[in-house]
């Protein structure tokens, strides 16, 4: 998408250059006339132009550390709602980890969790049924959750276009750290020699995305035991049902922070961002946490 936005002072040299290029070689007099003409034009006239009204893709990446799963879902809902009221194509991407928990997407079921209720209780695991694509995912610290909030309609992307960009961003990240990885035909995710490295499951509401991808970085195989993120009915012959991690693929595993920054860089590239900004946490998150706690207290009373 063309980067056509900017202030009048930023646009002025580009306007001068483009107008001079399409005319005969300018004299000093013609240049002065052109400058006087541009200076007389109201800034609002430039801002009302269809061409200049298009804004470059801006992505705000928020690296939030370990956050409660339910509160993160609430934050995504708030961001989706706010995105629906904008028309600038702004993209927000949350990068975080979650305490141990199992989420079940639309392609998953309880039978993909090979754990008894007692085993779940012993491991202090809870389940959440989530309206996203994909199967079951075992969340744990050491797994990077990637939640882009993208207004697809603004960019003319189909859901398939978006999934390809998201998947390729993860693939670029793995290759940056020299982890051999690949995609499966007809599947969205990331695979390595030791198994599935990243699961992808998104939701789309009014053409705005939420949820996203889960890349296992430093979490060990014990955290994935009994949870089929790659169940037999979806997997290729010979695939393991449980997820692996970058830790299993390389002797010099990067930290979760290094991977988060790499994912941000490569997603910005794949999404065609003209500007990407890195933040710690998100300014709306404290408000979301407060509302969540208020609801919990009301339910308990």
Automatic annotation (TrEMBL):
InterPro entries: aa-tRNA-synth_II/BPL/LPL, BPL_LPL_catalytic. Pfam families: LplA-B_cat (PF21948). It is an enzyme of class 2 (transferase). Gene3D superfamilies: Bira Bifunctional Protein, Domain 2 (3.30.930.10). Keywords: Acyltransferase, Transferase. PROSITE patterns: BPL_LPL_CATALYTIC. GO terms for biological process: protein lipoylation. Residues 87-275 form the BPL/LPL catalytic domain. Its EC number is 2.3.1.181. GO terms for molecular function: lipoyl(octanoyl) transferase activity. This is Octanoyltransferase. It comes from Bremerella alba. The gene is lipB.
């Amino acid at each position: 998408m063309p980067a056509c936005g900017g202030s009048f002072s930023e646009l002025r040299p580009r306007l001068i250059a483009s107008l001079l290029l399409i005319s005969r070689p300018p004299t000093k007099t013609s240049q002065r006339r052109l400058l006087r003409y541009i200076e007389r034009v109201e800034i609002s006239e430039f801002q009302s132009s269809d061409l200049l009204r298009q804004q470059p893709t801006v992505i705000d990446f928020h690296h939030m550390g370990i956050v409660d799963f339910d509160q993160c879902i609430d934050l995504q809902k708030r961001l989706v709602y706010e995105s629906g009221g904008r028309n600038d194509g702004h993209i927000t991407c949350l990068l975080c980890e979650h305490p141990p928990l199992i989420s079940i997407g639309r392609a998953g079921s309880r039978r993909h969790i090979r754990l008894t209720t007692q085993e779940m209780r012993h491991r202090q695991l809870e389940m959440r049924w989530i309206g996203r694509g994909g199967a079951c995912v075992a969340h744990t610290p050491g797994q990077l959750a990637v939640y882009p909030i993208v207004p697809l309609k603004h960019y003319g992307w189909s859901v398939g276009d978006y999934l390809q960009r998201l998947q390729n961003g993860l693939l670029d990240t793995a290759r940056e750290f020299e982890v051999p990885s690949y995609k499966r035909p007809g599947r969205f995710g990331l695979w390595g020699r030791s198994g599935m490295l990243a699961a992808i499951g998104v939701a789309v509401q009014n053409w705005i995305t939420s949820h996203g991808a889960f890349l296992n970085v430093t979490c060990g195989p014990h955290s994935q035991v009994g949870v089929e993120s790659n169940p037999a009915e979806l997997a290729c012959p010979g695939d393991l049902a449980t997820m692996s991690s970058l830790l299993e693929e390389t002797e010099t595993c990067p930290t979760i922070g290094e991977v988060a920054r790499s994912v941000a860089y490569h997603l910005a590239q794949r999404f065609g961002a003209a500007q990407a900004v890195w933040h710690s946490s998100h300014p709306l998150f404290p408000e979301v946490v407060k509302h969540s706690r208020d609801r919990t207290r009301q339910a308990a009373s």
